[in-house]
Amino acid sequence: MLWRQRGMAAWWPRCRMGMTACAAELERLAAHELPSAAVRLARGRRPLEPETGAELFSVLRERLPGMSPPEVAATCSAVPKVAAPGKRELFAALAARLAADADSLRPEELARSASGLALSGVVPPGDAAFPALSTAAAARRRAFGADPLVQLLNAFARLRLGAGEGGLLEAFAPEAQAWLPELYPRELALVANAYARTAVVCGDLFGELSVRARRLIPELEPQDMSNLANAIAKFGGPSAPAFFAGLAPRVVAELPRLMPQHLACVTWAFARSHHGKAPAVLRAVSRHLRGPGDLARLSAQELVNVLSAYARVRLGCPGLLGGVADHLAGRPDVVRAMGPVDLLYAASSLARLGVRGPAGLLAPLAARAKALGGRLGPKQAIYLLHALARVRHADASLLGALEGRLLGALGRARGEGGPSRSDWVVALGAYAAADPDAAPAGTSRLCKGIVEWCCRETHQDLGPLEGGRGGSADEMSPLDTALLLRTLANTWIEESEPAVQSLVNRLVSDHAGFSATGLLVATQAAVQLHLSRHDCVPSRACNQILDLLADELVSGRLTDLDAGDLRMAAWALARMEHVRADSWASVTAQLTRIMCEPSTEVLDAAVDCADGPGIPGAATSESGAESLTRETDDLHPQARAARVSWDAGSIDVAGMEQLVQCLSLVVSSCARMLLQDKGMIVSIYRWLGDPPQQASGSLDYARLGILTASLAKLGAAGCSDAALLGLDGGAFRGAWTGLLGLPGAQASDSAPLGDLSLFLLGLSHAVAGSAPAPAALRALLCSAASAHA
To answer: In the record, which residues are listed under signal peptide (predicted)?
Structure first.
C-alpha cells in the first residue's frame, strides 16, 4: 500500500499540469483509489479547470459500474461542488446506484451519500435515491453517531425533505436529542437549522436544545447564532426566553462582526421571539445601521427582513427609516432587485409601522410595483396595492397599472391558488382607500364586479333580508363580512343595495361567529349605512343589531374592550340614541377600568406570514418577512398605529390618542342622555389630576371643551358637585390645575367659536361651584375664564 501512496503522491502534481496527463493517470488507478484522487482534485488550492473537471466526471462515470456501494458513496461525496460539463449525467448515475444499493450502506456512507446528492445541486428532490436513503437510514438510526447524524439531517433539510409526520427528521428526533450533549456549537446549530427549515416540531428535542444552546452562547460564531436564534424563535418553548435573554448582550456586542445575512436573520429572530429584550436589540441594530455604508452592505432581501422585524414588534425608528429612504434614493438597483414577494413584504412592513413618508421611502416601491407589471400574480397585486393604499401611496398610475390584471383575474373562474373571496374583499378595501380623485375611470367597474362576485353566493345562501341562513361551504367569513360592510359604508359603490342587505342579514343570523372587533366593525358600518342609506339597512334590522350589541356589552364578548373597540361600541349606541341603562353601565365601567390601567409599551404578537390568510409566497419565501395581520390591522386601523412605539421608550402616544377619543365620546354621550356614573366621573378627575405624558398632545382645545361642558351638564364641574360624588378636594384641585396647564387649554384668538363656548360653559360651572375651593384655585379658574371670554 505504501508504494501506491507514493505513486499517487507523484501522480498528483502531474495531474494538475494538464487534462491528458490527468486522464491517463486516473485510468491507471484502482476503483477504490478514484474517490481519494477526486477529493484531492476537487479540494486543491486552485479551482479545478472545467476541462479537467469534465475529464474527471467522464472517468468516474465510466468506472462507476465496477465500484462497490461504499466506493459509490465515497465518489458521491467527493465532487458535489465541482462545476464542469458532465456533472448532471454523473450524479444521475450515482443516484441510480445509491437508490439500488442503499440497504447495503453503513450509517456514515448513507450520510455522505445524501450530503453529496444534496450539495450537487443537480439531483432533484424527487429523485428515487432520497426515499431509498431515508428508509435505509431510518432502519439503522440507532447506529448513527453524532457526525453522520448531523450530516444526514442537514442534507435532507437542505432540500426540505424528510418533513411531515413519520418523516426522517421526526424519526431521528430521539437520536438527535440523545447526542445533544456531545455536539459542538456548529453541529448544534446545524441540527436546529435542519428542523427549522423542514418545520418539524419536536418539543422535547428543542426544549433540551435551547438549554444546551444557552450554555454555549459564549462559544457561538455569528452563523451559529443566526441559525440557533432563527430555529428557537420559530419553535419557542419554555427554554426559549432564557436563551434569548442570554443571547441579547452577545448580539449587541457582536454587531460590528456580523455579516449582513446573519444580522438580518438575528434581528428577525428577536422580533419573532417577542422577548422583552427584543426592542433593545432592535434599537441597537438601528444605531448600528446608521453608520456610513452599513445599509449598503444589505442585499434587497436582507433589507426587507430588517424592515419586517421592526414591523413585527411595531417599533418605529425614524433615524433608521430616514436612512433607508436615503439609501433607496441613492441605490435604485436595490429596489430593482426586489422580486414580487420582497416588494410585497417591504410595503406591508411600512404599512404596519403606519409610515406615511418620507416620499423617498415609498415612491421607489410604488414605481417598482408598476414596473413589475405582469410578473405580479393577482394575489400579490392585491396585497401590494392594499399595503401601498394604507400608506397613502396608491396613486392613479399604480391603480391603472394593476386594474387590468385584476379585472382579468376577476373575469376568470377562480382556480387553484387564485384569489379567494377574502382576497377580493381586501382588493376592494384597497381601491376604496385610494384617493377617489386619483382613481382611474375603470375603478368603479372593477369595484362593482368585486362586490357582485363576493356576494353572489351569499345572496343565494341567505335569501332576502328577513329570510333564513343557508349553509354553503364557500360562504362569506365573518371577517370578510365586517370588512366588506365597512368598505361600503365608507365608500358607496353603485348597485350594492342587495349586497348590503345580505351582509346585514348574515350579521344578524350569525353574530356568534364574529370576533369581538369584527362584530363592532360590522355594527358600526350597519349603523352608518342606516343613517346614510336607510333603504339598505331598515330600522328593524338596525334595532336587531343594536340589541345584539347591548346584550354582548352586558354579559357577552364585549365586556373587556380596549379603548378603540369601546369607542366603536359607544359610537353605535350614541348615534342611534340607544338608552339601555345596563349597556351604558358596561361602557362607563370599561372606560373607568381603561383609565386606571398603566400605560405600557405594547409589543404586538402578530402572526407570521406563513399563518396569514391569502399572502402569496408566504409558505415558500425565504425572506422571513411577515404578512398583514388582517384580524387586528384591517378591522381596526387605529389599533395598528397604537401599537407602534416610535423609539420613545414606554410612551404609547397613539394609544393615548385612542383613549382620549373614547373618553370624549363616552362622556359627551352620557351628558346628552343625562347618565351620571359616579365611578366614571371620579376616575376622570383623578386621571386629569395626574395625566400621563402622552395626554398633552391629545387633549386639544376642542376635546377639552367637550369634556368640561359634559362635566357641567352632568352636574360635576364644581367643587361642591365633585364632593357630593365622593371626590376629595385635592383630586378636584389637581384635575383643574393640570387641565388648565395643558397646551390645549391656553387662550387663542383662532379657537373656533363652538369650541370656545363649550370650554367657557365648563369653566363657568367650575367657577360657580368653586366657593368651597381654596382661594388659589378660585383665582386660577376666574383668571382662565376671563382670558377666554
So the answer is: 1-18
Phi and psi, residue 598, nearest 5°: -70, 150
What is the chain's Cα-based Rg? 33
Reported as a single tens digit per residue, the pLDDT across 433-475 is 776 655 554 467 888 888 888 887 544 444 433 333 333 435 6
Query: Is the Cβ–Cβ distance between 698 and 660 less than 8 Å?
Result: yes
How confident is the model over 317-348, as pLDDT tens digits? 888 888 888 888 788 888 888 888 898 888 88
| CA distances in angstroms from 674 to 446, 585, 660, 727, listed in the order given | 48, 13, 20, 20
C-alpha angle 49-52-58 in degrees, rounded to nearest 5: 140
Question: How would you classify residue 655: left for phi > 0, otherwise alpha for psi between -120 and 50, otherwise beta?
Answer: alpha
Which residues contact residue 170 at a Cβ distance below 8 angstroms, ignoring those fewer than 6 apart?
164, 200, 202
Quote the cell numbers at residue 479: 371577517
Q: What count of other Cβ atoms lies within 10 Å of the Cβ of residue 709?
A: 24
Is 167 in a helix, a strand, or coil?
coil
Which cell goes with 556?
Answer: 357577552
197, 160 in Cβ contact below 8 A?
Answer: yes
- What is the number of alpha carbons within 13 Å of residue 153 lying toward its C-beta? 30
CA distances from 317 to 29, 278, 359 (A): 64, 14, 16
Task: Give the contacts of 510 (CB within 8 A, at least 6 positions apart).
Answer: 469, 478
**Residue 655 in this model has a pLDDT that exceeds 80:** no
The cell for 265 is 436573520
Q: Say how far residue 381 (Cα) sits from the centre of its chain.
A: 18
276-to-9, 244, 248, 478, 576 alpha-carbon distances in Å = 59, 9, 10, 34, 43
Q: What are phi and psi of 50, to 5 degrees?
A: -55, -40
- The percent of the chain in helix, strand and coil, each rounded to the nearest 5, is 70, 0, 30
Check: CB of residue 223 under 8 Å from CB of residue 183: no
Question: Which of 33-37, 80-84, 196-200, 286-290 shows the lowest mean pLDDT across its residues?
Answer: 33-37
CA distances from 717 to 711, 762, 780 (A): 5, 7, 15
β-sheet bridge partners, residue 645: 315
Q: Which three cell numbers stand for residue 697?
A: 398632545
The length of the chain is 789
Q: What is the DSSP string of 767-786?
A: HHT-TTS-HHHHHHHHHHHH
CA 192 – CA 184 distance, rounded (Å): 12
645: helix, strand or coil: strand
CATH code for the structural domain at 51-392: 1.25.10
User: What kind and span of H or E run contains 245?
Assistant: helix 240-254
Nine-digit cell string for 3: 508504494
pLDDT one-digit tens code per residue, 373-426: 778 888 888 888 888 888 776 667 777 778 778 888 887 755 556 788 888 999
Using CA atoms, how far apart are residues 490 and 484, in angstroms rounded to an integer? 10
In order of 564, 659, 676, 732, 741, the CA distances from 687 in angstroms are: 18, 11, 18, 11, 14
Give the whole-angstrom CA distance, residue 31 versus residue 504: 78
Give the burial string for 619-646 (b: 16+ CB within 10 Å, else e). Answer: eebebbbbbbbbbbbbbbebbbbbbbbb
- How many helices (H) and strands (E) the chain has is answered by 41, 0
Let me know the angle formed at the C-alpha of 119 by 116 and 120, rounded to the nearest 5 degrees. Answer: 80
